[in-house]
Design brief:
Gyrase A, domain 2, 14 strands, 11% strand
Length: 595
């Protein structure tokens, strides 16, 4: 099908040049979709061209409108409101578009090109000292959805995870396990491995705080007490031993990390996300250190009196950034430098996207600048997809105080809520126990994902589990129910007879609006990919579901006596279901066939 907006713009420019000799900027010709309350499909504001045409706005709009109707067979009529030219597209065009859409179940989806340089996207990035929490849920869902949207727009995408499996925070859990666990394992405690390790991270924090309080009571300043507390000194020593390769420390580290990975895998599977490659900081930090040392030789960096290595970013309007501590141990920035370099060697990506919370905005500004200072020109193609904190109605998450909103518990809660509401609705007829459980999972996870993804990532958001599961609001279950409703119609249609429909069919406003909305899908996919925006996709599919429900309410399908018209409406329903299904898939949501 032709690009309507481009065809209209080109025809407008051609008519203008024929009628008026004055030069004008063609960028001033902007074709937009007409507002719903105004008659027409596309609108052009002619006010910017009044001076070049030396004509009043309304007269100019009428003259161009008449010309467009004459030369474009798909423009059937026009009207003018002040200086706004509103064009009506002929029904024959919409019916041809409907035919194209209904014949292609993947309308609007491009095949991913494996020969393209990939876009590499990192998400999740958990620490191996605690379970995944609500913030991680938003992170994973954003990253996975952006990857799926980019793929649907024809990009080659590599999904990666960077596991923060080393550092002082990991040693805190290890130290507390040594002190308090009495050899506890996931098997002996019947706890998921990530939950067990997280328990000892909390235990360390309690010990550490009590030691700080004791020192403060003895007259030590609190800031100094935080440095002198025995627990933190032991954790720092454990980190040094780990980096030195101490067998006992490394053995404990491997054992506890293996518990965590098993727990993470179960959470990821339940969440419905995956990765093409997992990187581990324990394997990349040495590359980061060697890269820093090389830059130091080249005088890109400098050494302070205590032996620590820094980057001077004052010329870029920032401050000095630590890259290696005085004791030679690395910091997060060092590790990210090594990881970025390794990924470039592994994949030669066209760009690298990092889905990380907005508290790391400064970190990624610095990462790009430091890498560019080191001579890596590809650093300009690093993008930080920043997102805000998620809160629940009862307040913020606080991981080290043991009140974290656990990802596993959260998913269990929304699935349980989906089960309760579905059972109350009595819409489980004919489902086996296993099918019912799968339905509860699809609805619950659809509610969670849609609620988190429909909000612009940069905004801090309040997640309300009860609101997310509403079948009537701007929610995943509402969209899923629309898909299930269409599937029900399609199943019942096998008992009816239909006749083929043609492009001469007379259609009404509701049918026309639905065709137009489905026809917008390819552009929505493209814009969502350009903007890394699951929120745009969520908004579109919700509006499409609303539009279909209005169409369904006003237009009988199986009871329509005109068999060709019934066939057309059935095809339109089938196409709508395919678009809903593909849009939800990009959000990581499954579309049930029955609800």
């Amino acid at each position: 099908m032709i690009n309507l907006e481009l065809a209209i713009k080109e025809a407008f420019i051609e008519i203008f040049k024929q009628k008026f000799t004055a030069d004008f900027n063609t960028d001033m010709v902007v074709v937009q979709q007409t507002r719903k309350e105004i008659e027409g499909d596309y609108t052009i504001n002619v006010f910017p061209l009044v001076k070049a045409a030396a004509k009043a706005p309304e007269a100019l709009a009428h003259e161009i409108g008449t010309g467009l109707v004459q030369i474009l067979d798909f423009v059937s009529n026009y009207n003018v409101i002040k200086g706004f030219l509103n064009l009506t597209i002929a029904d024959t065009y919409w019916l041809e578009l409907a035919k194209t859409m209904t014949q292609d179940p993947n309308f609007g989806i491009k095949e991913s090109d494996p020969n393209k340089s990939p876009i590499l996207i990192e998400y999740s990035s958990p620490n191996t000292n605690k379970p995944l929490h609500l913030g991680h849920v938003r992170n994973n869902l954003l990253g996975y959805s952006i990857a799926e949207i980019l793929k649907a727009d024809g990009n080659n995408v590599v999904k990666v995870n960077l596991v923060n499996d080393r550092g002082i925070h990991i040693c805190k859990s290890m130290l507390a396990w040594e002190k308090f666990s009495q050899g506890a394992t996931p098997q002996s405690t019947n706890l998921k491995g990530d939950h067990l390790v997280g328990k000892y991270y909390v235990e360390f924090d309690r010990l550490y705080k009590s030691q700080i309080a004791e020192l403060v009571a003895q007259g030590v300043e609190e800031e100094e007490a935080a440095k002198q507390a025995p627990a933190i000194l032991e954790a720092q020593e454990m980190l040094r031993q780990w980096e030195a390769g101490n067998e006992q420390v490394v053995g404990l580290w491997k054992k506890m990390n293996s518990w965590v990975y098993e727990g993470f895998d179960a959470t990821y599977q339940k969440m419905g996300v995956d990765f093409d490659k997992i990187y581990y900081e324990s394997e990349t930090y040495l590359l980061g250190k060697s890269t820093v040392q090389e830059a130091l030789k080249n005088q890109v960096l400098f050494v302070k009196e205590d032996g620590s290595v820094w980057a001077d970013l004052t010329d870029e309007g920032l401050d000095q950034k630590l890259l290696l501590r005085a004791d030679g141990t690395s910091v997060y920035m060092t590790q990210d430098i090594g990881t970025a370099k390794l990924r470039m060697d592994d994949y030669q990506p066209s760009s690298m996207l990092y889905v990380v919370g907005n508290e790391q905005n400064y970190h990624f500004d610095v990462l790009k600048i430091v890498l560019q200072k080191m001579g890596y020109t590809w650093a300009k193609d690093i993008y930080h997809i920043s997102y805000g904190m998620v809160e629940l109605p009862h307040g913020k998450m606080k991981s080290r105080e043991g009140t974290v909103v656990d990802a596993d518990d959260l998913m269990d809660e929304v699935i349980a809520s989906a089960e309760e509401i579905t059972r109350q609705s009595g819409k489980m007829e004919g489902l086996s126990v296993e099918e019912a459980q799968q339905l509860f999972y699809k609805i619950g996870m659809g509610a969670l994902k849609f609620f988190l993804l429909k909000v612009d990532p940069k905004k801090k958001m309040l997640f309300n589990p009860a609101e997310s599961i509403d079948f009537n609001g701007n929610t995943g279950p509402f969209v899923q129910y629309t898909h299930a409703r269409i599937q029900s119609v399609l199943r019942k249609s096998t008992d009816h007879t239909f006749e083929p429909w043609q492009s001469e069919l007379i259609i009404n406003d509701k049918e026309r609006n639905l065709i137009k909305m489905i026809g917008n899908f390819p552009e929505v996919v493209h814009q969502a990919a350009l903007g890394f925006s699951p929120a745009l996709m969520a908004s579109y599919v919700y509006d499409l579901a609303k539009e279909y429900n209005q169409f369904y309410h006003d237009n009988p399908i199986l009871k329509e006596e005109n068999k060709a018209l019934a066939s057309f409406r059935l095809d339109l329903s089938r196409s709508t279901a395919a678009i809903i299904r593909n849009a939800l898939k990009m959000l990581g949501i499954q579309a049930p066939n029955q609800m």
